[in-house]
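Memo to structure team: turn this sequence into structure tokens by end of day. - J.P.
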Amino acid sequence: MLKCRTVWKKLAPLARASSTVCRQNVRRTGLTSSRIPACVPVAHMSTGPAGGGRENQLYILLVGAACVGGAIYTYRTVKGDSQRYQDRIEEISSRSYKRATAEPATPIQSEPSAVDATETEVILEPEPEAAPSLEPEAAPSLEPEAAPSLESEAAPSPEEPSPPAPDAEVAVPETTELPPADEPVVEASPEESAEPAAVPVVEEEPSPPSEPSPFELTELPPAPVVESEPAAAESPAAEPTEPQPEVVAQSGGPAPDSLKVPSHTPYLLIGGGTASFAAARSIRARDPGAKVLIVTDESDPPYMRPPLSKELWFSDDPSVTETLRFKQWNGKERSIYFQPPSFYINAEELNGAENGGVAVLTGKKVVHMDVRGNKIKLDDDTEISYDKCLIATGGVPRNLQVIERAGEEVMKKTTLFRKIEDFKSLDKVSRNVKSITIIGGGFLGSELACALGRRSTEYDLEVVQMFPEKGNMGKVLPEYLSNWTTEKVKSEGVKVISEALVKSVVCKDDKLEIKLKDGRLVKTDHIVAAVGLEPNVDLAKSAGLEVDSDFGGFRVNAELQARSNIWVAGDAACFYDIRLGRRRVEHHDHAVVSGRLAGENMTGANKPYWHQSMFWSDLGPDVGYEAIGIVDSSLPTVGVFAKATAKDTPKAATEKSGTGIRSESETEDTATSPVASLTLAPTVEQHQDEYGKGVIFYLRDKVVVGIILWNVFNRMPIARKIIKDGEEHADLNEVAKLFNIHDD
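Reply from structure team:
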């Protein structure tokens, strides 16, 4: 084809030039011939020497012959090109048919899969190896003349040799291998339909996922022989079946459950925490038929983490580590899991679910992400392709370098608190040792210290908390309130060691010796390291995603997008706050809101992240606080306090809202026009010894950028609006009236 076009490009100018010369000569000759009678006498023309007109005629003849020859050659060339092009198209269109009839059928290695007695033909469509199709192309076709046969086996076509008899007589099938995709039709010959009845027959139904369709690779369970009559050719197997999930299995043995996963999913959520569950719920709300697959390296479905360091420790149920159910401060019982197991569908049934659903693949870690190919690889080399993906990998607990360098013996006696397994392990340790030391004075460290301090009397347990700051939560609370909190923690039975910098940790005589830089020595049986969280960005390298150098985490835009079809939410997302600049937040409420927004944007919402997330912490049922914005003790603060009443406790707040996970009731509310209390604010000594309840404002350039509500609950929408407005306030006492802290 290309050669013909090249020849034509070379001949076309020559043909056009010849045609032009011919027309010019004809015109010139005609003009000359028309002028001769007017200029030359007739007698002279008849008697004069001949030859001038003959030469022109000969030239015209030669040029005309050349033009005719060129036209004929051109016509034949174009006609030949057209014929060769048509032949090529026909060859390409019939290539699959020629290959199917020319190549022999590949015999099945272990045993051909048993199909329905009424089926004698299986049509296989070619499937790409990396990303198999979501739905089968068509239902298996039916041959009426083969209906009387009792059993049908997937065998080579009649014109090709049959596989060896021993392979066809195996009683229990183990692994089925599909023939090459180029072989579209596999028929069962009439002679083979009379095979011994020992071979099991599995009737293919659309509903049970364990019985594979021709589009699956899985183990075939033994089944009794089904006697079919000739009239059985009208069995339901001839009707179109529902889409079956793509399943991958290893040859040579039963397919492990871990490999029975869809090879493709429209929505893939990496991580099984709060952000992933919020995104899944949001996706299903906007797209009721959506099919969502959550992949998590934990062995549990999505659950809430705050109770691990709060309510679960105050449960009176001795089996709380098994049930993972707890009573909130209001006495209402609930589970740590967001939804019961019945809420989810099996992963292998996801693609076949008519109404979609949410499936959770537990115990699997994503080790590689191919952004261009839109697929991931699990730690067992299973690959899953996706249309849209959310990365919600959360974070991993930090550890002190001195502990990591101390050796394996010290690491065995150290807990990095994050997951359900960590709660169960620490609960067991607290019942069997004499002393536990918590390193860290932040939210987690202080909560665990108060929780374990409650057990100090019952189990004769010494609880020690050490941190480098002057008081508990010294990086968050102003110094006077941090000192008050420290006294509160001490009253719970905790020995607090402030301004403590760990120099070394060694294990001697089955005891851990913690040596501080100022020379102090602390002996303990077990260490809990609560020194912060490191965002999990392991996939950044393989995926080529940007990691923020200042805050850590995946850098995303206002819509939480890292790529056009990849979103990031939760602890691992470094996002841009329209009021406070670029941030990364590690709190439950942020996981809920960012996951919800990412799910909406994955379904086409295209909403920016504007929400000011909040967080809360409870030091037992009597003291708690909620915070929003930038709460940094290095910023100037203004605190307005009032006398607390019995209803100003986390317990009372839980009774009012009905849930201990206070962000569930806070984030849905909006403050449009807060009304200040009409009660005049009494003069309050801001740094008095008793801080019952109050509001602490954090300022930057005289503008409120953070607010802590100390034992003041269900007022977060007001605080959110104050920060969103970004106005400078002359008298923050007047602003504090909006929270009604002076009401009895």
